[in-house]
Amino acid sequence: MTDAVNTYPGERLGMPEAGPGSIARPGRRIGALLIDYVAATIIATGFLGYDQFALPSEAGLTMFAPMAVFALLQILFIPTAGGSPGHRVLGMRVIRLDGGWVGLWRPIVRTLLIIVVIPAVIWDADQRGLHDKAVGLALIRA
Q1: Can you tell me the distance from the alpha carbon of 30 to that of 21, in angstroms, rounded to the nearest whole number?
Q2: Most CB atoms closer than 10 Å: which of 18, 27, 58, 111?
Q3: In this structure, is residue 4 part of a structural domain?
Q4: Is the pLDDT of residue 81 over 50?
Q5: Containing structural domain, residue 94
Q6: At 132, is the secondary structure helix, strand, or coil?
Q7: What are the two backbone dihedrals, phi and then psi, of residue 95, each rounded to the nearest 5 degrees?
Q8: Which DSSP string do the residues of 44-64 spell out, in sequence order?
Q9: Residue 21: partners with Cβ closer than 8 Å, 6 or more residues away
């Protein structure tokens, strides 16, 4: 008996190869991450006085302001808008694999794992990062 070989990301999850509902590809994911982090940096600079050129001893907690705003954007937008601002701008959304609402705890755990970085850069054959696998989510094209 031979094992079936997946020919495209998301096939074993029952998702289409391309178009709406297919697994979001790396280019869109990276683009969304950049959009979200730039937006978080602008918000942090405008409201929290973030100074990216200050020495750590001078900056205090404001040097973490962009990452805190990034996390807040992820945690607020994923359950309410179906994805972060970057996801939505680039035509993606975050879904539960078993259907239904993503809830509140999944975006929190997912975001914490993204901030750690390593889980977000390790993918499976379906191009799902460990941060999505850990909470049963997938980033798909809208």
Answers
A1: 18
A2: 111
A3: no
A4: yes
A5: 19-141
A6: helix
A7: -130, 155
A8: HHHHH---TTS-HHHHGGGGG
A9: 15, 140, 141
Cβ distance 74 to 35 under 8 Å?
A: no
In a domain, 88, yes or no: yes
For residue 53, is pLDDT > 90? no
**pLDDT > 90 fraction of the chain, expressed in percent and rounded:** 75
- Collapsing DSSP to helix, strand or coil, 25 comes out as coil
pLDDT-derived band at 2 (thresholds 50, 70, 90) equals very low
pLDDT of 55: 64
- Kindly list the distances between the CA atom of residue 30 and the CA atoms of 41, 46, 86, 87, in Å, as whole numbers in the listed order: 16, 24, 9, 10
Q: Which residues contact 28 (CB under 8 A, 6 or more apart)?
A: 90, 91, 92, 141
| Domain total in the chain | 1
d(CA 36, CA 71): 10
Cα 63 to Cα 49: distance, rounded to the nearest angstrom: 9
Instruction: Say if pTM beats, i.e. exceeds, 0.70.
Output: yes
